[in-house]
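Box S1 | Example of a co-folding query
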Amino acid sequence: DFKSCLFLICLLLLLIDMIRNKKPANFPPGPWPLPILGNVFTDVNYKTVDQLIEKYGNIFSLRNGNDKIVYVSGFKIVKEVLITQGENFIDRPISPLFDTLYKGRGISFNNGYSWRKQQQFAMSHLKNFGEGRKTLEEHIQRECNFLCGAFTEEQGCPFDPLVKINNAVANVIGNLVFGHRYEYDDVDFQKRLQMSAESVFLTGSVWNQLYDAFPGIMKWLPGPHQTIISNYQELSNFLKEKVEQHRPDWDSDNPRDYIDTYLTETEKRKNDSEAGFNIGSLVWSMVDLFEGGTETTTTTLRWALLFLIKYPDIQKKVRAEIEQVIGSCPPTMSDKANMPYTNAFIHEVLRKANLVPLNLARIARKDTTLGGYFIPKGTVVITNLTSVLYDKHEWETPDTFKPGHFLDSEGQFCRRNAFFAFSAGKRQCPGEYLAHMELFIFLTILLQTFSFSPPSGEEPSLESQVGFTQAPLPYKLCAHTK
Ligand code: HEM
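Box S1 (continued) | Returned holo structure for protoporphyrin IX containing FE
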């Protein structure tokens, strides 16, 4: 009858599930998965991951639908994944949600030869931008002066700096990529930035996880996962328009920005189609630079200002060094070498802010072993950057904000091996150079112009909100002109 038929079907499905998802011998341990669903409801984020580590150790596994996921924690083993065995884990798993959008184009969700060529091209543009014309440093200085103007308008009253900083940082990327900046009161651009922040936030939510586990069903269901898709599509359309506007007066001898240099590269690589230089890839690598470079640097600057108002003594010390070394001159990157405390402060902000707590996922390219466990080809690997940036074997006082973590006994700057804020190895963040430049120039100019304090009587909170990136809760500060 119908009931026993249904029972038999369920049994069969369970059996298929068991055979299909049988753990290989010596696979890392983890919580018991539900049939079919796996551990999709296990709440795992950078705040809850410690409980799983305590129970199963530094290498544990979960299952999302049919996907095997291994989480690795601690400096030693994360370094093994990213650097020592870097080539085995260099690929990004292309989740169904991002595959729908990227279709193998761009940088972040691409692999193999085409990824390497697109990534190398982007990195060289980020480093060499503006050679012989207005330098990148000058662009950032100019944008920061606009930002100072916007802060001054607040006349020392409490305000949330998020929107203005986000606009300034997006303008730096905008200048680099499509040669244009937007005024801080441009409503359309503000809306676009909000949509970007929303996508980044939702990417870290269970909706993204559910889509990856059951794309066939989720594709048709309404929900926040549809917002991620529509926001990305909207951004790519906006950037595609910029490309179309550029094409008529593109001159390969006088490149204005990323679009122009990319169009030239596309011409050069006409016979190397595997490298993937085409309009689609141009648009999606612009999406990568815009998405990768805006929220991250904005949030780091917000953390930096929050630490400055939380710890006025540290603010005083950074300002004193700025006054002593450059006075009121516009800062350039060559000044940084003479400013060990400011440099240490910026590194400590990046360490403590721990912006991408569980890194971007990687996938095993071939069967391998990690810490004695077997990791089959196709296993998704999550490197817990939090556990590196806060590893108690690597940092004297990991939970305390202390620029001294990056200073030697003589007060000179020292970079630390476990500084993995931008990840590590060949697939680490290609924007590190630009991010450091922005952080140094923005913070120096802001501290040359203002002293910052919390609104009177308020104690700044260092609480953060859980998402794909770790951001401070909204807060207000006062910017007093000096
Ligand atoms: C990837 C952090 C700024 C563009 C990444 C990754 C991290 C990261 C952890 C993952 C790397 C991996 O898979 O191992 C940060 C932080 C930033 C920052 C903390 C600022 C404070 C930027 C900027 C840009 C950028 C300014 C570009 C303008 C990218 C891109 C990727 C990436 C395109 C993907 C790279 C790939 O898949 O090959 N970033 N980032 N990031 N970042 Fe950044």
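The beta strands are 59-64, 67-73, 362-363, 368-370, 373-375, 380-384, 450-453, 464-465, 471-472, 478-481. The chain has a mean pLDDT of 93.
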